[in-house]
Amino acid sequence: MGDTTEGLDRVQAFLARFGYVAGAVARSTTLDDATTEALRRYQQFFGLDETGNFDEATKEQMLQDRCGMPDLFNGVAFATTCAWDRWSLTVTMDTGTADCIGEFQAVRNALRTWESAVPLTFTEVAPGGAADVNVGWRPANDPDFNMVGGTLAHADFPPGCSVVTNTLPKPVHFDDTEHAWSIGAVSGAFDVETVALHEFGHIIGLAHSSVAGAVMLPSVSPNFTNRALTADDTNGATGLYPSQDNWRWCRKCQGLAFGGGAASSSCPAGGAHDHSGSGDYVLAHGLPATASWQAEWRWCNKCQGLFFGLGLASSGCPAGGTHADPAQSGSGDYSLQHNASAAARLQSNWRWCNRCQGLFFGGNMGYPDCPNGGAHDGSTSGNYSLTFR
Q1: Is the per-residue pLDDT at 365 higher than 70?
Q2: Which of these ranges, 199-203, 274-278, 294-298, 339-343, has the smallest mean pLDDT?
Q3: Domains, the chain, ordered by start
Q4: Alpha-carbon distance 52 to 261, whole Å?
Q5: What mean pLDDT do residues 127-142 have?
Q6: Is residue 199 flagged as an active site residue?
Q7: Catalytic-labelled residue, pool 6, 115, 124, 199
């Protein structure tokens, strides 16, 4: 504290760049109060002794290759930023790297890992087309984000909390000047899938983590792979995109019912629902008001089916009477996406029946059964899309 050291201004610039300085700080060669406090925050984040001094362990940590996104915002740690207002995103991949073969497939593998954790879908579109995210290898002095030095790659957060660009596409850019890339652990090179998995964590809204082993830890070593999400990673992601899986299609009535209550379910075609051959559908649960999404879909604890809650009074339940009142059944508030563009792992042609208020698959209109008698009537329904695994 109080020491004057040539080059300390570069340490101060590093701390400011990655969010450890709360507000503006004067760049100087003197270890002042603001720099000491920023060093303590940095040391705490990486599990170092919180000396507040620029010691050897702190220097070694700062020299590690890392992501270019901030760790803190104005000195405050954060786990998530914001979510996209839609769950189907498009991705374009343009310039690759000459360092390895299969770099874009490694990025696709990373996308599939995130898709398995949260109900997001990533659809690849041709280079040059309109997209939500652009993936590519760039010079270290990338115009949209300077990666010169120890920065491996950079991305951005979703619209509404972006720090790199306020326009689309959001970048996932890798430094192709000062770092070598590989498929798998290779001496002196960085695994593409490992880094892509981290950067797409930012794209979906996750910030950096200080948890050892987490994908969202900001630093990464060469000759190393980390391709599996930890509980810390998935907890952050599911907090941004709350959902419930194990919703199933019934081959008898074409409706959607919760698979966890199959034994006590009631099918309008008779007996219990038959979920054989169904995918695992994932419904948005507790989603804030979002464009192109309709809330107020509810679970009936009598028949296990999904129905539109605002039509409760006129609904028909195959277990008898109307569907269960959500206020008494304990149902969450589910949201369905409507009029969505085609995307991988997104099935359209689900319809609302204006007679029973239930949801059914419109692709098999020849034999769906309505609890109110006859066939379902989807004549006034929108085209709903469900995410499946």
Answers
A1: no
A2: 339-343
A3: 8-63 (1.10.101), 88-239 (3.40.390.10), 242-388 (no CATH)
A4: 56
A5: 95
A6: yes
A7: 199
